[in-house]
Model the fold of this input.
Amino acid sequence: MKEHAFRFGRARHLVGVAGLPTTSTTPSDNVGVIVLNAGLVHRIGPFRMNVELTRRLNAVGYPTLRFDLSTLGDSGASAESQSRPQQICADVGDAMTLLHEQAGCRRFVLVGLCSGAENAHTVACTEARMAGAIFLDGYAYRTLGFMLRHYLPRLFNPGSWRSFLTRHARTDVEPEDSPDFRHEYPHRSAIRADLSGMLDRGLKLSFIYSGGVSRYFNHRRQFRECFGRVATHPSVSLSVLEDVDHTYTLDRDRGRLFDIIEAWLLRNFPVIDTSTSA
Amino acid sequence: MIALQEEALPCHFGRDNELFGLYHAAAGVATKAVLLCPPLGQDLIRSHRVYRQLAETLAADGIASLRFDYYGSGDSAGRSVDVDWVRCVADIAAAAKELRSRSGCASVTAFGARLGGNLAIAAAAAAHFAELIIWDPILDGAAHVARLDALQAALRVDPMRFDTPRSAEDAAGQWLGFAVSPRLRQQLMQQSLQSPVVRVRVLDSLPATEAHDWDRLVTAGATVTTLNPSTMWDELDRLEHAILSPTLIRTVTEHVGEARR
Done:
């Protein structure tokens, strides 16, 4: 294992761990992989998933960085007057610069789960050094097909009613005046336009949905219903893991996820053996 | 004059640089140092923020500290399944040595939450701690293992997590998101709260429904402070919720500060 811990960034406010390949290989395009925070969990990821993923990618030849965005995990604030999206773009820019300095990477793939997927999307809209993104439970929208698949079978299933009542009873304990921190997704057309722009710029995009978001995504077909022609673009790939939860709690599920990510990277950014080159 | 607080410094240390740590230098000259021993498993992730806040508060009060991850946990080397009790105890001793080297303080207090508290007691002699502050340590290892088994069994059929219950095979050999070796399981089964070799302060925020059997520690000279509100460590609904406790931070900082004077 070749990992190095850094405090870095324009205000030395970010903390991250860079992992270098343990093989004599270089990814095509000198691609490096940067893994973003999932929600408020620090850079190791839910159940240490980001550590396991980055080390596995190091073993097949990809330089990686897992780090905390401003104010999350061990990172501080930059003391700049910026919106959160501006901070995120600047933080990821700093992370790219660090991985370039440490491993010579020139282009980058971002990996993000949940809010991390939204942040990866935000950065991918404008960052010129992006080569691709892997969105785990990223944007999706309920469609007519979703509604039919979701509600019709449940109407006649006693187990679903039991499950519904259990959930209802458990979410009912929230006091009425508790603050609501939910945020609204941008309109579907805006996300679709963003994705088209990314594809026009040559980005490779992987969308992976878990069963943990079945309240808004429940079938492969829904991806096409949401994003139209974007869904069939040759640079887009889609995986659906129906039986898996949102944060990949089970070891076996994380293994399946890593298999998908590794195969996608090797397909789109193959590693080149440099051990025999002059 | 107000001393400027230095930013926490991430580092690797220990045998083959396998351990990850964050050193929080004191504002001004450090007169005392605290080693922050993390708990294991999901408790480590849930308490990450409170450990950071505690370290920053201590630093502002002139007390250096080191946060670190055991081998097989956090950012340290090793797989989750490699976490081993004996190695954790050795890692604490290595971290105490690192903290003394960085801070220049010979006297080191250890703080640990949950199993981090038990580990701090186990390492007290080897790490030459001056004092221990342990937050909701595990009283009975076998009962703790049984509780983790029950939570894992409930997790795989939790409708809030899985639309379709997962098989026992899928969930086997793990506790709440982390692979666990049979060896660690056996090691935890054998744990009971040892009589410490140094002064101990127990911070008790366990819910009223839990056992609060500190008698053996009190007999050995420990003091017990009750913290409110209670901390919900073992509830499946809160598995991915951060543990936050301003009361804990205030209590520890005041205690270490007083002991320093």
